[in-house]
Design goal:
Elements: H1 59-71, H2 77-88, H3 99-134, H4 137-178, H5 186-200, H6 205-220
Length: 223
């Protein structure tokens, strides 16, 4: 009995496509290989790179995400404080008279110095009258009068102390809006005014207000 062996060779060639492009109208292949034509993907470049036109991962998408992140950035303390003060305090222009309250600070301090000297002189004179025969009546009367005047003067000082930082903010904001040579920061100037009033009891308020008025005069001509 004769046995025949057959060697089966597996081909690595892939099977032909279902619908080859090289078949003519008669359904017979011409035996030549034709390149497969295809459309380039959207955004394809000549050097083989691709650009995502849809904004997926391209630079435009990075820019858009950066803008979005920037718009959601938390508000700083200064911006929050300014927005609050803008809502609470009135609007004014640079020609307004809000700077009068700033000028009231050195005026008030000058009056306080002069008044203190006058009060000291009156108390001395009342003491001399008591020595010569009034038996303390002059000193007591002087104390009542000057005490009443000092109380009223203290109320005026409280109003000036409150209005000084308020007027500084309103006036500085109006000057800043002009966008001229001098653009003071309203928040900074008002905070300096608050610290000067509360911490130094008008001692630093005087040079601060005088410097502000000096810069205002250079920028606007007033006062």
């Amino acid at each position: 009995m004769r046995v025949e062996y057959r060697r089966v060779v597996k081909s690595d060639v892939s099977p032909p496509a279902d619908e080859p492009d090289d078949i003519d109208d008669g359904g017979v292949s011409d035996g030549t290989d034709h390149p497969v034509e295809f459309d380039a993907p959207t955004g394809a470049t000549d050097d083989g790179g691709t650009v995502d036109d849809t904004g997926g991962d391209g630079p435009d998408a990075v820019s858009a995400s950066t803008d979005t992140a920037g718009s959601d950035a938390p508000e700083t303390t200064t911006e929050s404080l300014r927005r609050t003060l803008d809502d609470l305090l009135p609007e004014a222009d640079a020609d307004s008279r809000w700077w009068y309250w700033i000028a009231a600070v050195p005026v008030y301090f000058l009056i306080a110095l002069v008044g203190g000297a006058v009060a000291a002189g009156l108390f001395l004179f009342a003491g001399l009258l008591d020595v010569v025969g009034l038996s303390g009546l002059a000193s007591f009367s002087t104390f009542l009068v000057l005490g009443t005047v000092a109380s009223l003067f203290g109320i005026v000082g409280l109003v000036v102390a409150i209005m000084f930082p308020v007027a500084t903010y309103v006036d500085a904001r109006a000057i800043e809006a002009l966008d001229g040579e001098w653009t003071p920061d309203p928040v900074l100037w008002s905070l300096l005014a608050v610290v000067a009033v509360l911490v130094t009891n008008f001692v630093v308020s005087v040079p601060l207000s005088l410097y502000y008025l000096y810069r205002r005069h250079e920028a606007l001509g007033t006062p």
